[in-house]
Amino acid sequence: MERRYLLKEFPELLSCEEYSKVLEVGCGNGSTARPILCGRDNIIIYACDCSNKALERANMMIEVSNVGSVEHRFHLFHYDFSTSGFPKWLASEENKDISLNNSSSLGESNCCTGGVDFVTLIFTLSAAPHHKMPAVIRECFSVLKLGGLLLFRDYGLYDMTMLRFEPDKRVGFREYMRSDGTRSYFFCTDTVRDLFIGSGFNEFELEYCCVNNKSPNWEEHA
Question: Average pLDDT for residues 7-29, to the nearest whole number?
Fold first, then answer.
């Protein structure tokens, strides 16, 4: 499902400078990238995921969405944020002047150098083991330009998704195991604040919000 609410929740993506760079961590099927690319015709997204199948689905979604100049604005790469740091080229200061259109200069990544203006963590951090979350957030901090923003949205405490889990699926404090073997952690605002401030971020806005779908079901997220 395309996350059309993102531009309303994060209007900075619409008001940012031309050719601003976004790093999407955990791009899934492209449901986050698509509305951003459609909303701004000169924004550039570098999207990663640990699943090659997810990268293929994201690429397909963007290709069929008729987004203008997508070949120059959407770059995919394989990366597992829970096991290693971001590749060095992502925020290499010495390569700031390399042209994005010069794929030979960028090698196999064909992506961003010099840091990014935004990092998005949209329903991604909750899949990491809780003890690894600080390292993930520090990595995100390390690739942001000075004054850059991290845009975060994830499952909130007592979300309906949490309440549907059977007791035997609990594997830790507010942490559950899905049937496909992936984890889900459910955040309260204090936990989010401690994690991000502890990794060097300043708090701009943090609150619970509720997304109402057309169906009777609802979910509350941090």
Answer: 93
